[in-house]
Design a protein that fits this description.
Elements (H helix, E strand, L loop, with lengths): L7 E8 L4 H11 L7 E7 L4 E7 L2 H4 L2 H5 L5 E8 L13 E5 L2 E8 L5 H10 L11 H9 L5 H9 L7 E5 L4 E5 L8 E5 L2 E5 L3 H6 L2 E5 L5 E5 L2 E5 L9 E2 H7 L5 E2 L2 E2 H15 L6 E4 L5 H11 L7 E3 L12 H11 E3 L1 H4 L3 E6 L6 H12 L4 E6 L21 H4 L2 H8 L3 E4 L2 H7 L7 E2 L1 H4 L9 H11 L2
Bound molecules: guanosine-5'-monophosphate (5GP) and magnesium ion (MG).
Magnesium ion (MG) binds next to loops.
């Protein structure tokens, strides 16, 4: 069983716009970094739902003809990245179902931590599942509900699930957006005249000229229909647990999430990193693209010029999708190339946002060494990743995370750098402005804000990866 990267997702929804599907397509285009494996849109023309989902990039999937077949003034869309093993059309979102009360589309960003338990229970009572996605349990719970409005059915279903979820629901006449009480994943609300927009990140609004209104709050449910927008807080409040990895790596730097601009945070991480781990270097080299923002902070703080010592081929985007290690290594080589003339005989500080398995980093360091670097100091703008994520950024299993079993000096030797420095957890907390511990740092600490027995780790992973 190979544990590649798991669920990464992006959401977009619109209610009350004459070109709902077209606008959703553009929103997903801006959110492509959140998932490159598959995408889908469901629209409503108030009589029926229309859906199109496929494998591939947004620009490949949605042609003019396809968009024409998605009529109506409301739509929800989803981009997804999953494991090779489950990259299957049946798992592509949004899901659409037709049940006794009409049509329902659902799009999910996050991971449910008790999905396998609920699934076993539902299957024992006769539910037939069509996908291997945790999200599908929500549909079954909604379909079984006796409440007579969709919002109440959704609340009833969500009161039974644990974990991380940002969800968009679309029926013939309503759009509902929900963010889990912990607020793991970002979700933002926008407005343009009488139309409402919901997206994972604000960069989706910028592209289509929509005004960012506010973030949907942890535990908030927003119901949008012909009466306008109504906000509810149906869940018991809990301590907020924003995913700090959204700031470190996942979100786009131009987005505003969790009350901050992502680039601003990353730049500060670089500044803090330079304070904690200065390097005797002639140049600072960012690892494209994830290391750019932190490298700018690092160079600024240490007064060392930043140079583009690694050039990325922008037309190779999916290194991590390759199922076999051997192909992944190849992917690194076709993606990045050093500028030899710049690097030759220099001391370099190479900045990246994170080390996961260390296989990419090792390749990159070797590449820079071959280009003639004299000394290589690797600086990472986050602490060592030691634990898998069960809340929507599926880092590999613990055994594959180099930080879970190796000391920093061992990792330094493995990736063949001269020195290696990681940002401290305290430094990270300071940069994200975390005064009342409102972030989730579980990938660095193992301190999960939703508790589950450790035997669950495996069954949890199995649900996403093997079924
Ligand atoms: P490693 O050297 O551990 O093999 O790879 C480190 C690189 O993986 C870093 O450049 C980091 O930006 C990138 N990375 C971290 N998290 C993720 C993720 O969730 N998905 C992808 N595709 N890359 C990631
Ligand atoms: Mg990277």
């Amino acid at each position: 069983m190979s544990a590649e990267w798991g669920e990464h997702c992006g959401l977009f929804g619109v209610y009350g716009h004459p070109e709902a599907a077209n606008v959703t397509y553009l929103g997903l285009y801006a959110l492509q970094h959140r998932g490159q494996e598959s995408a889908g849109i469901v629209s409503s023309d108030t009589h029926a739902l229309h859906s199109y989902r496929n494998m591939g990039l947004v620009s490949e999937i949605f042609t003019r003809d396809v968009l024409k077949r998605l009529p109506g003034r409301s739509a929800i869309g989803h981009v997804r990245y999953s494991t090779a093993g489950t990259s299957d059309l049946k798992n592509v979102q949004p899901f659409t179902v037709h049940y006794a009360r009409g049509g329902l589309g659902i799009a999910h960003n996050g991971n449910l931590t008790n999905a396998h338990i609920l699934r076993d229970e539902l299957e024992a009572h006769g539910s037939i599942f069509q996908s291997t996605m945790d999200t599908e349990v929500i549909i079954h719970l909604i379909a079984l509900s006796n409440e007579h409005d969709l919002a109440s059915r959704v609340v009833g279903a969500l009161k039974r699930v644990n974990g991380a979820y940002c969800l968009l629901f679309l029926s013939e006449d309503e759009m509902i957006a929900v963010r889990d009480p912990h607020g793991f994943r970002p979700l933002v609300l926008g407005r343009q005249k009488n139309a409402y927009f919901v997206a994972s990140e604000t960069c989706a609004f910028d592209l289509i000229g929509v005004e960012f209104e506010r973030e949907i709050e942890p535990g908030e449910m927003v119901v949008i229909n012909e009466d306008g927008l109504h906000s509810f807080y149906p869940f018991i409040p809990v301590r907020t647990s924003h995913c700090v990895f959204e700031f470190i790596y996942f979100a786009r730097p131009d987005s505003f999430i969790f009350g901050r601009n992502v680039y601003g945070v990353r730049r500060e991480l670089g500044i803090q990193l330079a304070k904690e781990h200065p390097a005797e270097a002639d140049i600072v080299i960012p690892t494209p693209d994830s290391g750019f923002s932190a490298a700018i902070g690092y160079g600024h703080q240490s007064n060392i010029p930043i140079e583009l010592g690694l050039i990325r081929n922008h037309y190779v985007g999916r290194t991590f999708i390759e199922p076999k290690q051997s192909i992944r290594h190849f992917g690194v080589k076709i993606k990045l190339n050093p500028v030899k003339e710049l690097i030759k005989e220099k001391g370099v500080a190479v900045i990246d946002d994170s080390i996961v398995r260390a296989t990419t980093s090792r390749k990159i360091i070797k590449m820079i060494r071959r280009a003639g670097a004299e000394r290589i100091h690797v600086r990472i703008s986050s602490p060592p990743i030691t634990h898998p994520c069960f809340f929507g950024i599926d880092t590999p299993m613990k055994s594959e995370l180099i930080g879970s079993s190796h000391a920093i000096e061992e990792i330094n030797r493995y990736i063949t750098s001269d020195t290696l420095g990681y940002l401290s957890l305290e430094g990270l907390k300071r940069c994200v402005g975390d005064n009342n511990s409102s972030f989730c740092y579980a990938c660095f600490t193992g301190d999960y804000s939703i508790k589950f027995p450790s035997m669950m780790e495996e069954s949890q992973l199995r649900l996403y990866k093997a079924r």
